[in-house]
Amino acid sequence: MIGICAQFTIQDGKAAEFEAMLTEFVTTVKAKEPGATVYQLCKNAKAENEYFMLELYADQAALDAHGKTDHMAALVAKIGQFLAGPPKLVQGPALF
Amino acid sequence: MIGICAQFTIQDGKAAEFEAMLTEFVTTVKAKEPGATVYQLCKNAKAENEYFMLELYADQAALDAHGKTDHMAALVAKIGQFLAGPPKLVQGPALF
Protein backbone atom coordinates (compact mmCIF):
# COMPACT_ATOMS: atom_id res chain seq x y z
CA MET A 1 0.00 0.00 0.00
CA ILE A 2 1.03 3.59 -0.63
CA GLY A 3 -0.12 6.55 1.43
CA ILE A 4 -0.43 10.21 0.50
CA CYS A 5 -1.46 13.30 2.44
CA ALA A 6 -2.02 16.26 0.14
CA GLN A 7 -2.63 19.69 1.65
CA PHE A 8 -4.36 22.51 -0.23
CA THR A 9 -4.65 26.22 0.58
CA ILE A 10 -7.55 27.87 -1.24
CA GLN A 11 -7.93 31.51 -2.24
CA ASP A 12 -10.32 33.58 -0.13
CA GLY A 13 -13.96 33.27 -1.16
CA LYS A 14 -13.46 30.14 -3.27
CA ALA A 15 -13.98 27.43 -0.63
CA ALA A 16 -17.56 26.58 -1.61
CA GLU A 17 -16.69 26.23 -5.30
CA PHE A 18 -13.59 24.19 -4.44
CA GLU A 19 -15.62 21.84 -2.25
CA ALA A 20 -18.23 21.37 -4.99
CA MET A 21 -15.52 20.51 -7.53
CA LEU A 22 -13.82 18.09 -5.12
CA THR A 23 -17.16 16.46 -4.21
CA GLU A 24 -17.58 15.46 -7.84
CA PHE A 25 -13.95 14.38 -8.18
CA VAL A 26 -13.85 12.28 -4.98
CA THR A 27 -17.19 10.65 -5.87
CA THR A 28 -15.72 9.63 -9.23
CA VAL A 29 -12.53 8.27 -7.65
CA LYS A 30 -14.55 6.19 -5.19
CA ALA A 31 -16.80 4.88 -7.97
CA LYS A 32 -14.15 4.14 -10.60
CA GLU A 33 -10.96 3.33 -8.69
CA PRO A 34 -11.20 0.30 -6.41
CA GLY A 35 -7.41 0.54 -5.92
CA ALA A 36 -7.88 3.87 -4.11
CA THR A 37 -8.83 2.19 -0.85
CA VAL A 38 -8.99 5.45 1.12
CA TYR A 39 -9.75 8.78 -0.56
CA GLN A 40 -10.99 11.29 1.96
CA LEU A 41 -11.09 15.10 1.75
CA CYS A 42 -10.97 16.86 5.12
CA LYS A 43 -11.19 20.50 6.17
CA ASN A 44 -8.34 21.77 8.37
CA ALA A 45 -10.24 22.80 11.51
CA LYS A 46 -7.49 25.20 12.58
CA ALA A 47 -6.84 27.09 9.36
CA GLU A 48 -9.29 28.95 7.15
CA ASN A 49 -9.17 27.91 3.48
CA GLU A 50 -7.07 24.83 4.18
CA TYR A 51 -7.98 21.28 3.21
CA PHE A 52 -6.15 17.96 3.23
CA MET A 53 -6.74 14.71 1.40
CA LEU A 54 -6.00 11.36 3.01
CA GLU A 55 -5.21 8.79 0.33
CA LEU A 56 -4.28 5.10 0.41
CA TYR A 57 -3.63 2.98 -2.68
CA ALA A 58 -3.58 -0.81 -2.81
CA ASP A 59 -0.29 -0.73 -4.77
CA GLN A 60 1.88 1.35 -7.13
CA ALA A 61 -0.22 0.28 -10.13
CA ALA A 62 -3.35 1.76 -8.50
CA LEU A 63 -1.50 5.01 -7.82
CA ASP A 64 -0.12 5.15 -11.36
CA ALA A 65 -3.58 4.51 -12.80
CA HIS A 66 -5.06 7.25 -10.61
CA GLY A 67 -2.63 9.75 -12.11
CA LYS A 68 -3.70 8.85 -15.67
CA THR A 69 -7.49 9.03 -15.25
CA ASP A 70 -9.63 11.45 -17.25
CA HIS A 71 -11.09 12.84 -14.02
CA MET A 72 -7.59 13.62 -12.70
CA ALA A 73 -6.72 15.38 -15.95
CA ALA A 74 -9.94 17.39 -15.68
CA LEU A 75 -9.18 18.32 -12.05
CA VAL A 76 -5.62 19.36 -12.81
CA ALA A 77 -6.93 21.61 -15.60
CA LYS A 78 -9.34 23.39 -13.20
CA ILE A 79 -7.76 23.36 -9.73
CA GLY A 80 -5.16 26.07 -10.34
CA GLN A 81 -7.78 28.84 -10.27
CA PHE A 82 -8.65 27.89 -6.68
CA LEU A 83 -5.23 27.43 -5.15
CA ALA A 84 -3.44 30.11 -3.14
CA GLY A 85 -0.20 28.17 -3.56
CA PRO A 86 1.16 24.79 -4.66
CA PRO A 87 -0.28 21.75 -2.84
CA LYS A 88 1.99 20.19 -0.19
CA LEU A 89 2.38 16.42 -0.50
CA VAL A 90 3.84 13.68 1.62
CA GLN A 91 3.89 10.27 -0.01
CA GLY A 92 5.36 6.87 0.67
CA PRO A 93 4.95 3.19 1.47
CA ALA A 94 2.45 2.22 4.15
CA LEU A 95 4.43 0.27 6.75
CA PHE A 96 1.77 -1.69 8.59
CA MET B 1 -15.79 11.36 10.48
CA ILE B 2 -12.66 13.20 11.50
CA GLY B 3 -9.35 13.04 9.65
CA ILE B 4 -5.82 13.59 10.89
CA CYS B 5 -2.45 13.55 9.19
CA ALA B 6 0.40 13.55 11.69
CA GLN B 7 3.97 13.96 10.46
CA PHE B 8 7.00 12.85 12.47
CA THR B 9 10.71 13.58 11.98
CA ILE B 10 12.91 11.04 13.75
CA GLN B 11 16.45 11.50 15.04
CA ASP B 12 19.22 9.93 12.95
CA GLY B 13 19.79 6.24 13.70
CA LYS B 14 16.50 5.73 15.54
CA ALA B 15 14.21 4.78 12.62
CA ALA B 16 14.25 1.03 13.28
CA GLU B 17 13.43 1.44 16.97
CA PHE B 18 10.72 3.99 16.14
CA GLU B 19 9.14 1.64 13.60
CA ALA B 20 9.17 -1.24 16.11
CA MET B 21 7.47 0.93 18.75
CA LEU B 22 4.86 2.17 16.23
CA THR B 23 4.20 -1.39 14.95
CA GLU B 24 3.11 -2.38 18.42
CA PHE B 25 1.10 0.80 18.92
CA VAL B 26 -0.72 0.67 15.56
CA THR B 27 -1.49 -3.02 16.06
CA THR B 28 -3.09 -2.18 19.42
CA VAL B 29 -5.11 0.69 17.95
CA LYS B 30 -6.41 -1.54 15.16
CA ALA B 31 -7.28 -4.30 17.65
CA LYS B 32 -8.88 -2.17 20.36
CA GLU B 33 -10.36 0.85 18.63
CA PRO B 34 -13.06 0.07 16.06
CA GLY B 35 -13.76 3.82 15.88
CA ALA B 36 -10.31 4.39 14.36
CA THR B 37 -11.46 3.34 10.89
CA VAL B 38 -8.13 4.19 9.23
CA TYR B 39 -4.83 4.15 11.15
CA GLN B 40 -1.92 3.82 8.78
CA LEU B 41 1.76 4.67 9.35
CA CYS B 42 3.65 5.54 6.17
CA LYS B 43 7.30 6.34 5.44
CA ASN B 44 7.95 9.61 3.58
CA ALA B 45 9.66 8.33 0.42
CA LYS B 46 11.31 11.70 -0.24
CA ALA B 47 12.75 12.50 3.18
CA GLU B 48 14.99 10.40 5.39
CA ASN B 49 13.72 9.91 8.94
CA GLU B 50 10.24 11.23 8.11
CA TYR B 51 6.98 9.36 8.68
CA PHE B 52 3.33 10.28 8.49
CA MET B 53 0.21 8.74 9.98
CA LEU B 54 -3.09 8.75 8.11
CA GLU B 55 -5.96 8.61 10.59
CA LEU B 56 -9.75 8.58 10.23
CA TYR B 57 -12.17 8.39 13.16
CA ALA B 58 -15.84 7.45 12.95
CA ASP B 59 -16.76 10.47 15.12
CA GLN B 60 -15.48 12.87 17.82
CA ALA B 61 -16.17 10.30 20.54
CA ALA B 62 -13.82 7.82 18.84
CA LEU B 63 -11.12 10.49 18.58
CA ASP B 64 -11.59 11.52 22.22
CA ALA B 65 -11.43 7.88 23.35
CA HIS B 66 -8.23 7.37 21.32
CA GLY B 67 -6.56 10.19 23.21
CA LYS B 68 -7.42 8.62 26.58
CA THR B 69 -6.24 5.04 25.93
CA ASP B 70 -3.47 3.42 27.96
CA HIS B 71 -1.53 2.64 24.79
CA MET B 72 -1.61 6.33 23.78
CA ALA B 73 -0.35 7.33 27.25
CA ALA B 74 2.43 4.77 26.93
CA LEU B 75 3.38 6.06 23.47
CA VAL B 76 3.40 9.69 24.57
CA ALA B 77 5.72 8.75 27.46
CA LYS B 78 8.22 7.08 25.08
CA ILE B 79 8.02 8.90 21.74
CA GLY B 80 9.93 12.05 22.78
CA GLN B 81 13.27 10.25 22.80
CA PHE B 82 12.85 9.48 19.07
CA LEU B 83 11.62 12.80 17.74
CA ALA B 84 13.89 15.39 16.12
CA GLY B 85 11.14 17.99 16.58
CA PRO B 86 7.46 18.35 17.46
CA PRO B 87 5.01 16.35 15.27
CA LYS B 88 3.13 18.39 12.67
CA LEU B 89 -0.62 17.77 12.67
CA VAL B 90 -3.51 18.70 10.40
CA GLN B 91 -6.92 17.73 11.70
CA GLY B 92 -10.53 18.35 10.83
CA PRO B 93 -13.90 17.07 9.67
CA ALA B 94 -13.99 14.67 6.74
CA LEU B 95 -16.20 16.32 4.10
CA PHE B 96 -17.25 13.44 1.87
UniProtKB/TrEMBL annotation, chains A, B:
Report what the protein is called. Answer: Putative monooxygenase YcnE
Q: Per its UniProt record, what Gene3D superfamilies does this chain match?
A: 3.30.70.100
**Classification via PROSITE patterns:** ABM
Taking every annotated instance into account, which residue ranges of this chain make up the domain ABM? 2-91
Top-level taxon in the UniProt lineage: Bacteria
A GO term, aspect molecular function: monooxygenase activity
Cited SUPFAM superfamilies: Dimeric alpha+beta barrel (SSF54909)
Instruction: Kindly state which keywords UniProt assigns to this record, in alphabetical order.
Output: Monooxygenase, Oxidoreductase
Q: Which InterPro entries match?
A: ABM_dom, AI-2_Isomerase_LsrG, Dimeric_a/b-barrel
